[in-house]
Amino acid sequence: MEEYSLDDPTQLLNAASDFAYYSGVQSDSSAKDFLDRFPLPLIINALQTKEDVPGLESTLVACLERIFSTKYGASLIPQFMVFYLLENLEENDVSAARLIREYNLYPLLLDCLIHGDEQVAKASIDAIVKLAGSAEGMGIVFPANSNEDTHLRNLAARSSSLGRVRVLALIVKLFSVSSTVASKIHNSNLLTLFEAEISNKNDMLVTLNVLELLYELAEIQHGTEFLSLTTLLQLLSSIISNTAAESILRSRATIISGRILSKENIFMFIDESTAKTVISAIDKRFGLLESQDADECESALEALGQIGSSTKGADLLLLSSPPAARHVIAAAFAKEAPGKQLAALHALGNISGEQRSEDSIILSGDAEESLRRLIYETASKSFKLTPSGLFLAILQQDSEVRVAAYRMITGLVFRPWCRMEICSKEETINLVTDPHTETTKIGMEARYNCCKAIYKALASSSELINDPALAGRAPKLEEAVRRGPYLATRHPEAQPVVVTAERL
Question: Are 141 and 185 in contact (CB under 8 A)?
Answer without folding.
Answer: no
